[in-house]
Amino acid sequence: MNAYSNNYRNNQIMTASPEQLLIMLYDGAIRFVRQAKLAIEDGRTADKAIAISKALAIITEFSNTLDYEVGGEIALDLSQLYDFLIRELSVVNARGDASRLDPVESVLLDLREGFVGAVEANRSGITTSEPAVGQVVASF
Description:
Blueprint (H helix, E strand, L loop, with lengths): L2 H13 L2 H25 L2 H20 L3 H28 L5 H23 L9 H4 L4
Helix pairs in contact: 2-3, 2-5, 3-4
């Protein structure tokens, strides 16, 4: 990446709302899962390990920032999904089975879509009995 690209990305991150950051992190995790799949298919073991490590770091942070008091059952469900993703990524890292990345990518895409919908609902003033996105994921 050149200096202009780095400055642009840094500016995007620094000016993003917590909800936008969450979605950007989902995009990153999805991108790293896809990179890992390509690396496995190309036999690039080191690149696979790096991509999986980055995806694991994002998902682990998601899990660590869940607010169970505010999020209740939603936070518990997310925790279980994150645990599944972490387990699968760890197995893929050890065994190199690219097919196990398909469900990981699918879950991440579904979660991202759900958070985008929640953000849009919050912006449009639609109220629900569910906690807001930023409340379930406390640090974002």
